[in-house]
Design goal:
By secondary structure, this protein is an alpha/beta fold. Among the domains are: 203 residues, no CATH class; 107 residues; 99 residues, no CATH class. The protein is 24% helix and 23% strand. It is built from 25 helices and 49 strands. A hairpin with a 2-residue loop joins strand 32 and strand 33. It starts with a strand and ends in a 7-residue tail after the last helix.
Amino acid sequence: MTVRWRLGLIGSLVAVSVLMSICAASSVSAADARNFNAGRIIDDAVFTNSDSMSVQQIQQFLESKVSCDTWGQKRSELGGGSRAQWMNARGISAPFRCITDYAENPNTGENNYSKQNNPAGAVSAAQLIHVYAKQFDINPQVLIATLQKENSLITDEWPTPKQFREAVGFGCPDHVAPGAPACDPAHGSFSAQLYQAARHFRGYMERRPGWFVPYSTGWNKIMWNPNGGCGTSDVYIENRATAALYSYTPYRPNQAALNAQYGTGDGCSSYGNRNFYLFFSDWFGSTHINGHLLRTVDNATVYLVGKDTKYPIASMETLSQLSAALGSVSFVSQSYLDTYLTGQLAGRLIRSEDGTIYFYDSGIKLPFTSCDMVAQYGLGQGCGQPMQLTNAQVNRFYSGPPIMHGYKTVSGKRFYIENGSRREVLDDQSLAQAQRDQGYNVLSDSAIQYLPIGEPIVRDSVVIESRSGGNRYLVSSGQAYSIKRSMYVDRVFNKFNSGILEQESIAKLPQSGKVIDDHIANSTGTQYLITGDGKKQIVHPGEINSTPTVLSDQIINQLEGSGSLESPIMIKSADNGTVYVIESQQKRPIVSMDDVFAILGKNQPYIAWVSGGTLASIPSGNVVFAPGKFVKSPSNDTVYVSDGYDKLLPLSHFQQAFDVGVEGNIRTVRDDVIGKYKVSESVLSPYVNCGGVTYLGVGGVLYKIELSNQRAFSLQLQTCKALRKEDVFPTFISDGSGTIFYVKDGEMHPIRSWQTFLSLNRENKPIVRGSFITTLLMPQGLVM
């Protein structure tokens, strides 16, 4: 016989368990009793999912489990002939009702058992199950499993009226005083049984005031069996639904009962909660869902359900991170969610029941060592607002090291978390220079996206590059200088220590507002041009029409390159074969290398290679010829001598040009080029002025002399530089007619005879041949 005990409950007696093994499910078990979790038999969300089945679905399920022997035609398993004969012998007449066709008026308890027709106001068992499940927000599947484990009503083909009156064992205690009824007649109807079961399940979960609720979450001592000699076990009840089941059926199945599956264990076995677990699992699936991340069918908001509070999750990222430890999202009823208080939006802080606060990411929990560190992570003062979880929930996260200021993402970025911001870190040396700890945790990029970007930690004299756009910057004296991307500037700064940062981080550095290009200067004003050979000092800074970016002497000294650029500066770029001369702050193309050699006066001149961008930034000027060269246009026969870089001197006679030292072929150039030069109104004279010093050209050399009777023709310095000059005027000159002149005291004296010449030229000095035009310019003396 069934052994029961009586539990005290204000105003009622409650049946709490069926201890003997009862009929197994008609189908082969898919559940394994050995998976029974004594501390979490069923999750709260499953236990209270009152929307799990409609009336129609309940009816269809019941019909799938039993085929009713309404007239008792089958042979009785209990002896005494047919089932009808067995029933009749006990005063029970057909039709015999099963759970599938049983109907009862819940107000009167009148039912259709042994009757052809349903009494007025009667509703089906499926309807009654659904009504009380909804009324008390209990899963109808819980009531179905309870009906089966208490009185086998779900699978019994010919249940007795007593089974319906004691359907869920409510009011039928395990221990009854002598002479007392086995069950309280006040609850002796199917509807009353269902009502009280659903009501008490809800009351036990809520621990209603005034109720005696023997078990609650936390550590409890639970008997193995009503026999006190079997002892008790310590069970940590993890949730309220499990506490409700133990409060209704206060026994824990021992290992023998679990090993027996639906069968019989040993003398200390109990079966009520085991059978509930097996029936529910076989018929409806797992008693466990992810009871941590929940939502309803009608509302997409997902909540993290903690110990007593639910926390709405506002982003897919937060949901993803929580799911890594707590599993997937499950659906529950709104009424179940409403049993929890609503807390703040789910964040990155969780707290265990012992008060430890953790930062979580990627399924890992990292403890904070102080409330100050919580504040450093921007999660609030006074340890912030952590989400209170159960120990079981916290234990689902892997344990990581304590949270640190240093933070490295899985993509390789490094940050220093400080004062509620994330400061990107260039390297260990930068941390050391800033006197910051170098340790770090390695976690996801997304975990600290909520923190604003702060000023990065970057040491001095390094080049940083933007991770997104490729922009480069030099950090010098704590400021960021934008580096213009060009071939040779890139080359010289490639020698510097460098690293990559986010553009957003770089923008937080103090900005110098200056751009480093090819033209730079040190602190004393010495200017440099960055060329293909590194930095070159600019001897005459005024030749470059730009303001140099001033850098520290330390940076200038780190740049490779040496030497200087002589005036005039010759430049070209790798993508342009033209050589240019910098003149009047313009770049002027040079027609041929002969001009280059002539301008610089060297057979191996230095040409500075600069970037194409730098070359393009210099204003362009007209084509330039080497000073002191013959040129003409195709449309005009006038021959000119180039004077400097912007002036042409017309010739009246070639002999004049030869005397001053102009030589070479006549170059024909386009009219538009000639048209951009200034043409002198006067023809070239052999008597010239070079920077305030007068010379007379004789035989291709300019000789220093002052002619008081002549006005010197001024040549530009570039032309003067290109011409040969001597300080000592020749003693003997010839005009090409055969006459030799003796030059003395600034006068030219014709020499009468060869014998006279020999007597005057005892030092064997040369005769310099000049033109008659030149000799006419000098004062004439007496014949000698």
